[in-house]
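Deviation from plan, reported transparently: heme C complex.
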Amino acid sequence: MTKGVWVLLAMAMLVVAGNVAMLWYVLQSGFSATEQPVKLEVLFARQLRHLAMPEAQKQMRNPVPATDEVLAEARVHFADHCANCHGNDGSGATLIGQNFYPRTPDLTKIETQSFSDGELFYIIHNGVRFTGMPAWGKGRPEPDLDSWKLVHFIRHLPNITSEELEEMEQYNPVSQVAREEQERIDRFLQGEELDPQSPAHHH
Ligand code: HEC
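Because the crystal trials were delayed, the predicted structure below was used instead.
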């Protein structure tokens, strides 16, 4: 046989071995989300993501200037849409974020910050398949400037101030029940009688 055939054969065997190993791994570990992904799996998934990103996308420059207004807008947007999973500070230390498989990463760390602007945009716009990260670009008018603004905000996250975090709390989604309870408490603090049955005030 020629050398080329041997190389092909060796490659085919590697693919088969790889598939067997993958199958064994899935059968061993099951589909539960409670385990932490092993380091190799994380490394592999991340490298795959870099590879799968179209080159032109990686090179894309942020078309939006990083002004104070843009950052303020993105901050509110992040608090409203992303903080459920990522936390206002981007740490991912939220109840939901820490129970995903894979876990919601700390966006302030080098693993995230080393993505190019174009890659971050791509992730926000398209989401990450097989994870809890949704796609946000669908239905937005092109170019998706909101996602580009969020890219600026993610770059700013490692330097976020306590004032900014405090402001963001006002924009975190709150359930109707929690909002009504808070209104009841506010009225009580303003001197109204507290009726345990109904938030409405009777005379
Ligand atoms: C429902 C939960 C959820 C929401 C809401 C969410 N994310 Fe994510 N996000 C995730 C998870 C889980 C990952 C990790 C995906 C992975 O491991 O590849 C992730 C990953 C990312 C990443 C890539 C980080 C990295 O290093 O891999 C970016 C950037 C990101 N999210 C930005 C956002 C922005 C901006 C928003 C709001 C518009 C948002 N996310 C909303 C769950 C969420």
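The longest helix spans residues 3-29. We consider this an acceptable substitute for the interim report.
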